Amino acid sequence: MENAGRAFLDAVRKSMRQMRAVIGATTIDPKLLTAAERLQYEGYLRREETNAAILTLSKNGIPIE
């Protein structure tokens, strides 16, 4: 049961962006998040910012190395 639960949660986490888009929850109000959710959300925002910067550099011809 523990493995099945973990696999289910992993699958849900991987598809959260698509699920939010489907239900129309594309904006998140940080005031409504718990402390743990806020930390996760802030990490998500940092990763998105880093990914955008990397994509911009890549488009400008700068190698990832």
UniProtKB/TrEMBL annotation:
This is Uncharacterized protein. The lineage of its organism: Bacteria, Pseudomonadati, Pseudomonadota, Alphaproteobacteria, Hyphomicrobiales.
